[in-house]
């Protein structure tokens, strides 16, 4: 089959592409590379023009305030139109979510309509923010979630605009447009599946694919100083609950001094990011989730002990008895205790790291995951 994967976040579609290619399919990715992260895509519609200098950014913001139009969106649309001949006649077109190019709804709709009209079967992935997920979080969800900083009164809604915006009419209409055109909507993890319990087109969770051939087991056997790594994307700071990690790390510094070495990296391109944590024993991914994010999964493939989602909710959803992840919760004292257990018992870090890689090979292998997608593409089962 000829398959077009639309949009890219954190390497999600690149890893699935690898698996699908191993099964003999022709696969291309169209997208903008996920902003500063610069993930590879086959058909590039993004641009770094407005990030090249302070002046370029000011021009973009000024024009938006003056006219209501986003110049970056217009540039994406122009590049999309230049590539239209390469975006037709696929057997499968799969959208990573209903806003895969990150544009304002009116511009996004032009590209979505073209892709739906000029290709055969469409599929929608529940991966990242969309209308249904934002609606669920604001109206139905119980327990902690990515909007906790608003619920707890730390932030106003406009400070998490990138999630709340999906409740707007344009984003809602685009979501239903893609959903209506799609054969199925496929949740990529527990967090997104929660919002789809009443959706007839929703499938069972298909976990994110990991191309583990890209990664080796990178166990740092020098346990004389425990290395802890945390990456921060400022745009997702509050959504991921990084504030809880930061408070916990301040306590850990005082408690253990030179026994720990802490690295904090901010908004790095993908290749630089994964190089930065190579020697880490422990990686702090995110707090306000019930499943592992993509960065967590890739770190686990390298044998890192990861703090991310791994509670009983996760285990039940994936029908697992256990998972080699440190379940992260929005509780500073709890995080400090969990970190302390690892620092005080460093041999456990190596054992858990080996188990983490095995978990990825067993449950996230890109070829195995690609077969699960292929079943839906072929309407089998």
Structure explained in plain terms:
The chain is α/β, with parallel strands linked by helices. It contains 16 helices and eleven strands. It has two domains: 2-209 and 366-377, Rossmann fold; 213-363, Glycogen Phosphorylase B (Rossmann fold, 3-Layer(aba) Sandwich), CATH 3.40.50.2000. It is globular, with a radius of gyration of 21 Å. The protein starts with a strand and ends with a helix. The relative contact order is 0.12. It comes from Nonlabens xylanidelens. This is Glycosyltransferase involved in cell wall biosynthesis.
Strand content: 5-15%
Remind me, CATH topology of the largest domain? Rossmann fold
* Structure annotation, total helices: 16
> Could you report the average pLDDT, rounded to the nearest whole number?
92
Task: Give the key terms.
381 residues, alpha/beta, Rossmann fold, 2 domains, 5-stranded parallel β-sheet, 43% helix, 14% strand, Glycosyltransferase involved in cell wall biosynthesis
In short:
With 381 residues, the protein is an alpha/beta fold. The protein is 43% helix and 14% strand.
Q: What order do the helices and strands come in, and which of them pair?
A:
Blueprint: E1 2-6, H1 12-22, E2 26-31, E3 43-44, H2 54-67, H3 71-82, E4 92-95, H4 105-117, E5 121-126, H5 131-139, H6 148-151, H7 161-164, H8 169-181, E6 182-187, H9 190-193, E7 226-232, H10 242-256, E8 260-266, H11 270-276, E9 282-284, H12 294-301, E10 305-308, H13 312-318, E11 326-327, H14 332-344, H15 347-363, H16 366-377
Parallel strand pairs: 1-2, 1-4, 2-3, 4-5, 5-6, 7-8, 7-9, 9-10, 10-11
């Amino acid at each position: 089959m000829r398959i077009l994967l639309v949009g890219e976040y954190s390497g999600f579609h690149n890893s699935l592409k690898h698996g699908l290619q191993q099964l003999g399919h022709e696969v291309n990715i169209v997208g903008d590379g996920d902003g500063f992260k610069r993930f590879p895509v086959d058909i590039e519609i993004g641009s770094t023009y407005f990030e090249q200098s302070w002046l370029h950014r000011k021009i973009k913001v000024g024009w938006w305030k003056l006219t209501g139009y986003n110049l970056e969106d217009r540039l994406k649309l122009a590049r999309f139109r230049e590539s239209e001949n390469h975006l037709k006649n696929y057997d499968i077109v799969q959208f990573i979510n209903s806003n895969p190019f990150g544009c304002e709804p009116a511009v996004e709709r032009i590209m979505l309509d073209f892709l739906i009209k000029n290709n055969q079967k469409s599929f929608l992935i529940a991966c990242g923010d969309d209308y249904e997920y934002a609606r669920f979080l604001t109206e139905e969800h119980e327990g902690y979630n990515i909007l906790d900083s608003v619920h707890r009164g730390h932030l106003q809604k406009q400070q998490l605009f990138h999630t709340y915006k999906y409740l707007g009419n344009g984003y809602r209409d685009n979501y239903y447009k893609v959903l209506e055109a799609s054969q199925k909507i496929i949740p990529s993890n527990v967090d997104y599946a929660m919002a789809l319990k009443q959706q007839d087109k929703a499938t069972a969770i298909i976990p994110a694919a990991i191309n583990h051939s890209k990664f080796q087991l990178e166990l740092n056997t020098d346990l004389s100083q425990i290395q802890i790594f945390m990456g921060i994307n400022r745009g997702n700071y509050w959504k991921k609950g990084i504030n809880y990690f930061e408070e916990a790390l301040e306590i850990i510094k005082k408690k253990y001094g030179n026994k720990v070495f802490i690295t904090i990296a901010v908004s790095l391109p993908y290749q630089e990011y994964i190089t930065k944590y190579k020697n880490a024993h422990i990686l702090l991914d995110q707090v306000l989730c019930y499943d592992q994010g993509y960065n967590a999964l890739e770190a686990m493939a390298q044998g890192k002990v990861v703090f991310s989602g791994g509670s009983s909710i996760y285990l039940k959803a994936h029908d697992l008895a256990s998972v080699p992840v440190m379940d992260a919760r929005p509780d500073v004292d709890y995080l400090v205790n969990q970190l302390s257990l690892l620092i005080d018992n460093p041999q456990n870090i190596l054992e858990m790291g080996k188990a983490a890689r095995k978990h990825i090979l067993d449950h996230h292998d890109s070829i195995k995951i690609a077969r699960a997608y292929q079943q839906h593409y072929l309407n089998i089962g």
